[in-house]
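As the next step, I selected for study one protein, both as residues and as discrete backbone shape codes, as given directly below:
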Amino acid sequence: MSSIDTARAETPFDHDVVVVGGGPAGCAAGVFTARYGLDTVIFDRGRSSIQRCAYLENYLGFPAGIDVETLYGLLHDHAEEAGCEIGSDLVESLERVDDGEGFLISPQEGEPVTARRVIAATRYDGEYMRGLDDETAMFETHEHDGEEHEHFDKGYAESDGTTPVDGLFVASPYGETGYQASMAAGRGTRVGITVVEDVRREAGYPDAVANYYDWMRREAELDGEWSDRDRWRTYFDDRVPDDHDLEADRLAEIREREIDRRLETYLADDEIERRIERGHERLLEHIDDDLIVEAAREIETERENGGS
């Protein structure tokens, strides 16, 4: 679902968003930014902290648990389906580009790339961010066994992922977020939405209409007054503050684009069925073929015996 504003169609950067880390937090953030239409790249060094887990038994949606390899494959498949590019490389450093807007991202092996925004979604030490801000703000020092150790400050970012560095967001599962995989995915979702809303504000959306959600509804719910486009125009205009500084044409463009986006979230019954079938088919791609064949035989046997 691409809803990126036309004002963002041309950018001096290689990518709109670079995500550092391809675990639950990074992939969740990437899904939301890419689905909005932002050119998103996820750098995954292949050693996400979740891969240290022997078997995951508390990730919602898997009643008997799930092995980390399969979950990791699902996370990456989802991110790529949403439009993300995933690179298996370690980010060694982030630097401000010459004009102070955006970042130069230098990986260990590949060529450096630039991005307007960066989402830090790793649990490793944050050394790649050193130099972007006052080190006393980004890093904290503590003593252990008589020696001083320095670590990235887990409280550096706000709860929505924003930081004192413009364009830098932190989705790492730190502090109150905890270290559970499902909590990390939630943290990534929150930060992904924060980035989208930041893009919308930069494109001129007033704060009152910059908020963003991404969920589908049944077309049958789009009835009565809400089936009338003029009703949506009234709804939008009522939320825009009187002191906005947008030209009338630009405000009208934003309003019509936002109405289009909202209406696109309503799905007809046949489209819902199509998506359900495709969703199930994609899940099958991550299940062992022998198990699928065995389950198919059991189903066929039940049918032959009059079962359901």
